[in-house]
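Reviewer 2 asked us to include a model.

Predict the structure of this chain.
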Amino acid sequence: MASSSAAPRRRLLVIVNPYATAVNRKMRDLVLAALASRYEVEVADTTAPGHARELASAAASGGAEIVATLGGDGTLNEAAAALAGSGVPLYPLPGGSQNVFAKLLGLPSEIVDSTARLLELADRWQLRRVDLGRVNGRVFTFAAGVGLDASVVAKVDAAPARKARLRQWSYVQTGISVFLRSYALRKPRIVVEGNDQPLPVSTVLIQNGESFTFAGSRPVTLCGNVGLDSGSFSAALVKSGAPLRAGVTALRIVGATTETGGKNGTTQLGPLTALKLRSADEQPLPLQVDGDFAGEHLAVEFSIDPGALTVLAANPTHRG
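Predicted model (structure tokens):
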């Protein structure tokens, strides 16, 4: 223990989103005080969308040895975009409603346990390189989607107080509302370019990690043969059809697990390194990346950047 305490402290920037679902002033201060026992800590609060990216970029060029985000997957997404290719490791402290990326890395989903893990890793400096997805100028760490789920994300993001109160259930309730009011009457028409099967598709879900998202602690897995460091992604296509069939498919997706990944009512493509989609009727298609709404587009192009992001986390075989 004596040699550990004498070791030089690494420079750590903690980017805090003070508006994230699970972040409050008392918790923030306790986390920072704990981290100061093993790191040379700097802290910066975000003030607007895109600010986390600016802060992470400045940290990477300014000599920071590690960047941690205390916020949700959206804050982490911005930091990941800035740190891609830099070699500066990223660590996600859970402060959002889902914290999907942290769970996929095998890191604790509770803030106290996650902080303790980051303290342990100061001595067990375990770096891992993972893939980043790219779509229309944005990056994504674990998932993206075009169609229904993107429309749901847009409505959830528009009501942050409700999102903070209901957390994961806000997506469920909003999804039902969007489906019944919009998608049951008129769905997007998406063309999958290069696909041999001319399917009428209304939603495309892109999975970059072992799971698409989580329902609480339970992983929701749409596709197999994909992981954070597989060098590829997979896609689940939701066909257009009668409202009843589409509703059943949506329920199967929510209930999907690793064991049912191939039997959830979707058509799967992958492993993939690129995928192009376009609107079949010139109506813009809604897009989401890592659970954040990313606007509407007439064409959407996905690709993968293997090993682009360095994270501070044990390899999968060492997860605890």
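The chain has ten helices and 17 strands. The chain has two domains: 2-125, 138-306. We have added this to the supplementary material.
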